[in-house]
Design a protein that fits this description.
globular; serine acetyltransferase, domain 1; single chain; mainly alpha
């Protein structure tokens, strides 16, 4: 065996790590865990280490533990590659809005109002309040920056204290 082959094998074995837990087997993130996710919302999402974040979003977006077919359900709403935790929240938001529109594949376009309503439900687990809703909708209409609004919800004190 060559040294190069041994090094390649060792690197491969070290990078595998434990498999992610099965969907629906981890408690949803809350409290300090959500605060930590909030601080690192732009970091790359990892199914194994972010299982409780997935479960939080399943609880708020689907009102149930994550189903076994979650990855297939999220597929039409995800960006290529692993993406960030913010991208994951965006995929759940668009999935939630598509469910509300009875469009499970997300074929139809979402209005800013539909996206914002789903973002509040996914990030905060509640309906939009008048004041925050007005300000966020005005921002969306002016800029079109949906992920910026979602990020602000995910970095809010309310999200951090769930």
């Amino acid at each position: 065996m060559t040294a190069r082959w041994l090094l390649a094998t060792a690197l491969l074995l070290c990078s595998c790590g434990p498999p992610p837990p099965a969907f629906g087997t981890v408690a949803p993130a809350s409290g300090d865990e959500l605060a930590a996710y909030s601080e690192a919302i732009t970091e790359r999402v990892n199914r194994a280490t972010d299982a409780s974040l997935y479960e939080y979003f399943c609880a708020t977006a689907l009102a149930a533990p994550c189903p076994a077919d979650l990855e297939a359900r999220l597929a039409p709403f995800r960006t290529r590659g692993a993406g960030s935790r913010l991208d994951l929240a965006d995929a759940f938001t668009r999935l939630r809005a598509a469910i509300e529109k009875d469009d499970p594949n997300g074929i139809s376009q979402l209005s800013d109002e539909e996206y914002l309503g789903a973002a509040y439900r996914v990030a905060l687990g509640r309906e939009i309040d008048d004041e925050g809703g007005r300000a966020n909708l005005e921002f969306l209409r002016r800029t079109g920056e949906r992920k910026t609004v979602l990020r602000s919800l995910l970095q809010s004190n309310e999200f951090r204290s769930k």
